[in-house]
């Protein structure tokens, strides 16, 4: 039995994670952490099943009082980093779906996990289909190196571009030399209209109500284009990946960045 704490339990993703943990026979929900949960039980939070599980506002207080094996963190970059540090220091294995970590953050957390010999997972996207999109894009970029990325998310998302878009660009960069794209004399008539840039690749972010998480990677070549697209239609799409990470992290002794590291692809 894997005892799990869910951070961000009142949010939409956190609530789905709570339901996933409850549905898995080998998982047990030990506690929840949420800024609005002071003195409450999960059964007191709107929309939750009547769970007699404590809710904490402070991660250290939670881990001082609750026996936990894994932390699922679905909060925000600053909070997620702090929670990871506390979890690793307390021998709890973090599985983090929060995006917005810098390369320096990941390196710092990797060093801490290595020192403590404890497993950790940070995944910009836990949807299996999104991970496949990244791998397909990496394969395509070997043969069609001119590429742009368009990512679309709900308008409550804090970071742009998304962690998935950044990870996709990084994976493409592993097989593609940096190269300029577009006309060498192009000029933006509206600042930012060409999006952000990573080694010549342009990344465009869309934020609108009604969206969940969507990305397309468009490749252009002589006389042809190729589009690879993934859509998460609701937040249940992320749960199989979170479940997989919770299972794998129990046997790991270091941090991995990206769900693809745990898949045989």
UniProtKB/TrEMBL annotation:
InterPro entries, per database record: DapB_C (IPR022663), DapB_N (IPR000846), DapB_N_CS (IPR022664), DHDPR_bac (IPR023940), NAD(P)-bd_dom_sf (IPR036291)
Binding site for NAD(+): 8-13, 36, 97-99, 123-126
Domain Dihydrodipicolinate reductase N-terminal residue range list: 2-126
Gene3D superfamilies: Dihydrodipicolinate Reductase, domain 2, NAD(P)-binding Rossmann-like Domain
GO cellular component annotations of the record: cytosol
Annotated GO biological process: diaminopimelate biosynthetic process; lysine biosynthetic process via diaminopimelate
UniProt-annotated location(s): Cytoplasm
Signal sequence residues: none
Binding site for NADP(+): 43
Protein residues bound to (S)-2,3,4,5-tetrahydrodipicolinate: 154, 163-164
EC number assigned by the record: 1.17.1.8
Active-site residues, Swiss-Prot/TrEMBL: 153 (proton donor/acceptor), 157 (proton donor)
CDD domains listed in its UniProt record: DHDPR_N
Domain Dihydrodipicolinate reductase C-terminal: 129-263
Keywords: Amino-acid biosynthesis, Cytoplasm, Diaminopimelate biosynthesis, Lysine biosynthesis, NAD, NADP, Oxidoreductase
Catalytic activity: (S)-2,3,4,5-tetrahydrodipicolinate + NAD(+) + H2O = (2S,4S)-4-hydroxy-2,3,4,5-tetrahydrodipicolinate + NADH + H(+); (S)-2,3,4,5-tetrahydrodipicolinate + NADP(+) + H2O = (2S,4S)-4-hydroxy-2,3,4,5-tetrahydrodipicolinate + NADPH + H(+)
Enzyme class, spelled out: oxidoreductase
Pathway: Amino-acid biosynthesis; L-lysine biosynthesis via DAP pathway; (S)-tetrahydrodipicolinate from L-aspartate: step 4/4
GO MF annotation, one: NAD binding
Subunit structure, as described in the record: Homotetramer.
Protein name: 4-hydroxy-tetrahydrodipicolinate reductase
